TrEMBL record:
<dbReference type="InterPro" id="IPR025659">
    <property type="entry name" value="Tubby-like_C"/>
</dbReference>
<dbReference type="Pfam" id="PF04525">
    <property type="entry name" value="LOR"/>
</dbReference>
<dbReference type="InterPro" id="IPR038595">
    <property type="entry name" value="LOR_sf"/>
</dbReference>
<comment type="similarity">
    <text>Belongs to the LOR family.</text>
</comment>
<dbReference type="InterPro" id="IPR007612">
    <property type="entry name" value="LOR"/>
</dbReference>
<protein>
    <submittedName>
        <fullName>Protein LURP-one-related 10-like</fullName>
    </submittedName>
</protein>
Length: 219
């Protein structure tokens, strides 16, 4: 009879570093979206079809922060981030199914280069784990990203970092949420924690873009 195995389970991966205490607000769109406490958001895809793919974004109390509307399954997908008062605060325009799935994000309803706030693209064409580089409009050389989104496609989770690829400065985290209603309806639902002094409208836009890129690769 074989004796007991000496094999031991591999140690669990180390937890991510705690969020850094930021000296200055990370205000990409507007300082009014930077507050001194964490913001917990729930992002839910409302439509069953990717051709419309509307999202709602609410806070921990169920208050509407933003809505997202637009078409994505075209050569140039375009979405609008709309605040609770009905104002378009961001326009997200992307060339999906391209080499790096590049998106450009503009202030308000504009798509003019002068109103560009930031752009997002995959760091590599083929990825085992999702990694998006984010460049502010002022970073014209795009040698080093200003932010990075690192995700686990299998777990539908991601962490957003300030700075380049070896940065450990966390500014937000997202994980897919599962409820009986969402599983039955086939809707996506994400829980997002935005850390203090970080522009939560900016983070909401990044999560929507990440979800669109993941869906475009699954289609």
């Amino acid at each position: 009879m074989a004796g007991p195995s000496n094999a031991t389970a591999p140690p669990p991966p180390p937890p991510p570093p705690p969020p850094a205490v930021l000296a200055a607000p990370v205000a990409v769109l507007d300082p009014r979206y930077c507050v001194d406490y964490p913001v917990d958001m729930t992002i839910t895809q409302k439509a069953l079809s990717l051709t419309d793919g509307d999202y709602s974004i609410v806070d921990i109390n169920g208050n509407v922060l933003f809505k997202v509307k637009g078409k994505v399954l075209s050569i140039h997908g375009q979405r609008a981030l709309i605040d609770a008062a009905g104002n378009t605060v961001l326009t997200m325009r992307g060339k999906i199914r391209s080499m790096h799935d590049r998106w450009k994000i503009f202030r308000g309803v504009s798509t003019d280069q002068k109103d560009l706030l930031f752009s997002v693209k995959k760091s590599k064409f083929i990825q085992l784990k999702t990694q998006l580089n984010v460049y502010l409009a002022t970073n014209t050389s795009e040698t080093v990203p200003d932010f990075q989104v690192r995700g686990n496609r299998h777990e539908r989770s991601c962490t957003i970092y300030l700075g380049e690829s070896n940065s450990n400065v966390i500014i937000a985290q997202m994980r897919e949420q599962y409820t009986f209603k969402n599983v039955i309806s086939g809707r996506d639902m994400f829980g997002v924690t935005v850390y203090p002094k970080v522009d939560y409208a900016f983070i909401a836009a990044l999560i929507i873009i990440l979800d669109d890129i993941d869906h475009s690769e699954e289609a």
